[in-house]
Amino acid sequence: MDDITKAVHDYVVREYLEEGDEREVTETTPLISGGIVDSFSMVSLKRFLEKKYQVQIPDADATPDAFDTVQRIVALVHRFQKPATVGA
Amino acid sequence: MSNPVLCDELIAKSYEELTANFDWSVAERELGYKPGDPINIGWMCSDRMCRIGIADKVALYWEDYQGNQERFTFDDLRVLSNTVAQFIWELGIQPGERVCLFMDRVPELYIGMLGILKTGAVAQPLFSAFGDESLLVRLQNAETTAIITQKKHVHKVRKIREQLPNLRHIIIVDPGDSALQEREVAFRMEQMPRVEDFPVYPTTAESPSLLHYTSGTTGQPKGAQHVHYSIISQYLTTKWALDLQPDDIYWCNADPGWVTGTSYGIIGPWSNGATQVVLDSGFNAERWYSFLQKRRVTVWYSAPTAIRLLMKEGTDVVRRHDLSSLRYLASVGEPLNAEAVIWSEQAFGKPFHDTFWQTETGCIVITNFPGMPIKPGSMGRPFPGITATALNTKTYEPITETGIAGLVALRPGWPSQARGYWHNEAGYKAKFKNGWYLCGDRASIDSDGYYWFMGRDDDVINTGGHLVGPFEIESALLEHPAVHESAAVAKPDPVNMEVVKAFVTLKRGYEPSDDLELEIMNHIRKRLSPLAMPQEIEFVESLPKTRSGKIVRRVLRCKEFNEPVGDLSTIMDD
Fold first, then answer.
1. How confident is the model at residue B568, as a pLDDT?
2. Is A64 an 8 Å CB contact of chain B?
């Protein structure tokens, strides 16, 4: 698990998985369709990603489908991250 | 546009004919009920179906997001609801006591409600995404005796149980191997001895049945008290407004934690003897369309928020599925915009029919009636037996001109009208003016008698079809250590119609930041619910107030909607 994947995974488990919910969350666990994150809570997850990774995710791209797994969320972050400056 | 295949009454008579000589006794006769006899919703939806010869018909196909499936016939409903009833009765729960259902959309939720009602106890369904604070205020107000829940939600009950002296039993349907704690008891429905015969409590028309909580502008949520006679209008509106027929496969997207999920996710379809399907899954367009295709759903009752999310996913995903079984589509929650109606005609070859009603009405009261021309964006016309109007906001007299906005009002007396608010007589009385029940919405009526929604008449926020009270949010905001004062208002939203926006002043020593905004958002989400979570927080220096110091939400709301604030002189003196 790379750094972004681990950070997103840990945030989801900490913030959205209910205390008594013993489901294991992997990179491919359905989050929205699995009822762990609902469409309203997606907004706070989006806000977390934008703040932590300094990205702007357009509302049109923030669909339930794009947020349905940790893997897809990470892909979304990569898509909107500015390319690293050469030599930085 | 293809025409729906209508039930016999709708083929034989026009809307005008049905309305002209309407009497609710048509539903009483069809349900075999004689005024004065006992009437029990739990029995009507299960035992009666077996008596009329459909014991072996499938009542419920259930599926979850992992693909687990179960199937229940009407005889299963009868026996398993007896089993729930027997268990509750043996715990010593008395008729009239409140039993809360706090579960995801698992079979025990649907069958459990019938079982509770069979004992004469009152079912109090609550949305399982509620946080502990939302749960606490509703259980305290109802003086709930027992709660039926799942292992994944029981920690919220454990957090608050010391503040709930009336809560004698915490019933867990899937306890697993974990140790039960104080007041907890396991109930594994499938492993319990099946109870063939249970002496159903002889509730009568006015016996309390369900207690559904709804939010208002002021104070904590109010418990709308329904009675067993409500089945009369829930049965008939399901048949006529949703055009549900015995051979239909019906899918209602609503969670039974809300009134749509009980009136039209349990009582309506099963009192009509229809097969319904339930998908215990969050939103996913591909999964939803696959489910519609697999179950060959014919009647689909959804919500504008879900429809707009489907619109966002486009029509390509629709085309990949065979949805030819769909016959009739309807929607409820908040007004269905014209674009969504037009899109559904393009995507499914059929329009969604908007229906209007609320927790207190218990059934659909204004609707785009099957067979009646749809005016996209309109709420439709009053259901037969419902006398509706738009009232002048000052005189509370019906507005006679067309196209003028007024308060949506109903003449009291239909079968499923809430009989009161639990422990809040004053709040219930305040809903009536001049002999009319006020819905809290504004609408105009056009020359054809169609109603057009204009907005709420109070500060309640309608988000994704659910009403959220600003007081509850503001109270929870004040629990956060950084918050000095707050105001919660509606903000327009393209998917949910409205979302919550909070204006916050901070205590000395705290500075506005993205971190703090996210922290406060998550605080509300966990304490109340995801619906109540502000989707935006604006940190301000001060909030607009009356001379006596009361926060004027209207100023903030108008700013969000880009509307003129109007004359504030009277309210500023409050």
1. 67
2. yes
Asked if the Cβ–Cβ distance from A39 to B286 is below 8 Å, we say no
- Please provide the average confidence, as pLDDT, over all residues in chain A: 89
Asked if A38 and B517 come within 8 Å (Cβ–Cβ), the reply is no
Tens-digit pLDDT profile for residues A60-77: 899 999 999 999 999 999
Distance, in Å, from the CA atom of B451 to the CA atom of B461, rounded to the nearest integer, reads: 21
Distance from CA of B101 to the nearest CA of A (A): 17
Please give the tally of structural domains in chain A.
1
Contact residues on chain A for B514, CB-CB shorter than 8 A: 47, 51
Residue A85 lies in a domain: no
Identify whether A88 is part of a domain.
Answer: no
The whole-chain average pLDDT of chain B stands at 94
Is pLDDT above 90 for B49? yes
Q: Rounded to whole angstroms, how far apart are CA atoms B457 and B467? A: 13
| Interface contact A64-B280, CB threshold 8 A | no
pLDDT at B2 (0 to 100): 38
Cα(B48)–Cα(B61) distance, rounded to whole angstroms? 20
Q: Note whether B104 contacts A: Cβ–Cβ < 8 A.
A: yes
What is the arithmetic mean of pLDDT over B140-158?
96
Structure tokens that stand for B256 in this block: 């039974």
Looking at CA atoms only, how far is residue A80 from chain B in angstroms?
19
Residues of B in contact with A33 (CB under 8 A): 65, 281-284, 287
Among residues B538, B533, B532, which one has the least CA distance to residue B557? B538
> Can you give the pLDDT at residue B574?
57
For residue A43, the domain's CATH number is: 1.10.1200.10
A65 found inside a domain:
yes
- Which residues, 6 or more positions from B500, have their beta carbon under 8 angstroms from its beta carbon? B461, B463, B468, B473, B488, B489, B490, B491, B531, B532, B533, B534, B535
For A33, the closest of B129, B156, B287 (CB atoms) is: B287
- Give the distance from residue A82's alpha carbon to the nearest chain B alpha carbon, in angstroms: 20
Pick from B462, B509, B510, B450: which is nearest to B489 by CA? B462
* Highest averaged pLDDT of the listed ranges B214-223, B425-434, B538-547: B425-434
Q: CA-to-CA distance for B406 and B452, rounded, in angstroms?
A: 10
Q: Which residue of A has its CA nearest to B520?
A: A44
- Band of pLDDT at residue B86, cut at 50, 70 and 90: very high
Residue of chain A with shortest Cα separation from B281: A33
A87 in any annotated domain: no
Smallest Cα–Cα separation from B285: which of B327, B320, B248? Answer: B320
Domain coverage including residue A57: 3-13+27-80
Q: Which residues of B touch A18 (CB under 8 A)?
A: 152-153, 155-156
Specify the pLDDT at position B3: 40
Nearest CB neighbour to A38, from listed B129, B152, B463: B129
pTM over 0.90: yes
Confidence of residue B259 (pLDDT cuts 50, 70, 90): very high
More confident residue, A19 or B464: B464
| A vs B: CB pairs below 8 A | 90
Q: Inter-axis angle of helices A42-53 and A70-80, to 10 degrees? A: 50
Residues 516-555 of B with CB under 8 A from A: 517-518, 521-522, 525, 530-531, 533, 535
Interchain contact A60–B (C-beta under 8 A) = yes
| Confidence at residue A84, expressed as pLDDT on a 0 to 100 scale | 58
Rounded Cα distance between B462 and B499, Å, is 7
